[in-house]
Amino acid sequence: MIDIDKIRLDFPILGREVHGRPLVYLDNGATAQKPASVIERINLMYSELNANVHRGVHFLSQECTTLYEAARENVRRLIGAESREEVIFTAGATASLNLVAHSFGRQALRAGDNVIVSQMEHHSNIVPWQLACEMTGATIRTLPFDEQGALEMDKLPELIDNRTKIIAITQASNVLGTRPELRRIIDMAHAHGACVVVDGCQGIVHGGVNVSELGCDFYAFSAHKLYGPTGVGALYGKRELLERMPPFMGGGDMVDTVEMERSTYAELPLKFEAGTANFVGAIGLSEAIDYLRRLEPSEIEAHERLLLARATERLTAIPGVRIYGTTPDKCAIVSFNVEGVHHYDIGMILDKLGVAIRTGTHCASPTMARYGVEGMCRASFALYNTEDEVDALIDAIEKAIRMLRR
Ligand SMILES: Cc1ncc(COP(=O)(O)O)c(C=O)c1O
Q1: Which of 98, 118, 124 to mutate to test the pocket of ligand 1 (most atoms within 8 A of CB)?
Q2: In whole angstroms, what is the distance from residue 72 CA to residue 96 CA?
Q3: CATH code at 39-293
Q4: Average pLDDT in the 31-55 region?
Q5: Class for the domain spanning 4-30+296-405
Q6: 27, 129, 174, best to mutate for ligand 1 pocket (most atoms within 8 Å of CB)
Q7: Predicted confidence band at 405 (pLDDT cuts at 50, 70, 90)?
């Protein structure tokens, strides 16, 4: 059985207090805390190993390059890609999605084409497609979701046609926890000759992925939500697509030859990694992956399901609380509002009680608009959270409501 007390000791920050109270960190959907092994690895990189990758003949550069490429292989294994050339290191999911939109999107889209984007996407999987459409004359078509937070899959056949070039879809909504039926969407897209770009930011943490089995064309995620460092992430792309795509950014490392008027480009994956890579970040991510491999995924999932069920049950029992996103197989994220109380006020009072939740739009304004609200409170759980912390959350919410309704 998963030993949460032991796991918590691996995460130094969980031992701290805020406002004189033990920290209850429930903002994991925004960023997760880091185990000591990741922190130590980053420390070691800067204290003993630091040198630029792919550039030096000297010992440290060679050593860093070996570790960086080993990190790539580790990510390949994590996501089940066929080859390491299909794994591009980026600055994070946002950078990955922009890379696809600007390189693949601008190449694939023409005036009159369309991109189907689900209504529950994070801004990072909406705005890059708007930019690509503005530049090409293509248009966005929105795949809506219903009151429960389930995608309205019966609308997809009405939206998709032979001018659909891309479907942009999340693996799990960062607000609603909804896990769209990716396989069905991918099959339908491929039957129409369209590619599917999956935002794996939340999905990779809650359940993981095998991109080869899934059959998606692109997959993006950030390390910092997966217990790794900030400023690094990855893009998976099918090799034949990446090979046909033009580079997104130009600079060092992504070229083969450079003359004053023209250049030729490096092979995959470096074609898409212009400039000094965040090699320390990538190596830190690899360490986070190793940390997770020492745990049993089914136990983590069961634990997170338990936390979600307890939070949902207890929140539902509070008069005036509305939960957004109630699909049966949702991941461990619960967004809610309290009637007559502003979400920011709840968040501020919870903070004073040591409970960190997220408030606002969660970078998903169309999701807020769907429910006609300005914002929501969100508690998002990680493998190190406990049932006691769920109870602390509920107690704090009840206290906040008492104070605010006084
Ligand atoms: C579903 C989803 N997509 C994309 C992002 C953007 O990730 P990043 O800011 O790490 O690029 C987030 C971050 O909250 C997210 O939750």
Answers
A1: 124
A2: 15
A3: 3.40.640.10
A4: 97
A5: alpha beta
A6: 174
A7: confident
